[in-house]
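Chain X:
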Amino acid sequence: MQTERTDTKMPGKAPPLVLISQSPSETMQIGELLGEHLAGGDCVALTGELGSGKTCLTQGIAHGLGVSEAFAVTSPTFTILNEYPGGRTALYHMDAYRLDGTPDLFEMGYDEYLADSGVMVIEWAERVADAVPDGAIRIEMTYLDENRRRIAISGRPDRIASWEAPFGKWRR
């Protein structure tokens, strides 16, 4: 017999760091600050409806990683994966929207990208949730109005706790 866990306080989990962005430029600033705190081998799983700011946040992450093409970052909806070398580490930007699940993901070499020393950002991560590493930084983006977005960051408690001060002006 299986039972569902209904409590939200699981060991090793911390409440999400909730930020409110007031504009696309603030979303990009949040991404840039996040990129400054990411290291090679990190995986960022982005979820949220169309227009919630996932690509804008990823552009900021690229800038924070020092990727020279940061402002050329676009959603790889049709190419599935874009690689941006340079900076402190490479950025692998994947869009899982058009995938039919994890088998498609592994056919394209996903595990090799994860094993690399770059940072992997996955848009529409909910479509491949079973393939997202346990240690991933999970970011849920919510459209509040034309400009404002709710950005909830969760993951390893030690990392999330260390980000509270740098992200302070956006905390809600």
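Chain Y:
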Amino acid sequence: MLLKVDAIQRLEWYREWFERRGRSAFLSEFPHPVLVARENLETETEASFHTAFMSRSQFLAELQKGGSSAPDDRPQIRAGEVRLVRKAAGAAFADRVGVGRARNADVWLPNPRVSKYHAYFSGTSDAGYTLTDADSRNGTWIDGEKLAPRTPVPLAEGSEVVFGPHRFTFYTAAGFCENIGRRARS
């Protein structure tokens, strides 16, 4: 089965892949951490916003403090979409995986509330991963805490990560495999 690794897939696609090929093939094919999209902070309702750290209205007020513009017509990132946290071909900074709205970002998030170079991931599966805000306009959060610019913060399995209006759950490759394995019908 050919896999177009740059394609953005949904959790269901990964579950079906896991069911057909198995755990060891899954870990071999998907050796990178991932971000699983949650509801977009601009479009979800107060009732669907679930976090112990701040309410949706508090978060949107924080975004407005940065003087950010209104949402545009670019495609929204839908809940359940998976972004691979890995280097893109030809991307800058070999020692990190960049996140931003620039088309050449390793993890591309097309939204005006995401800076061109918003944040970056560093680390390895053995040493652990960190996330660093690249002095973005609207900030980066881990589990409800706004990151200080240019200060690496360790990531835990299942951490909620927010870039502008986009919320994700962070998984290592092994953690993502376990998550998909629990969803699999086998």
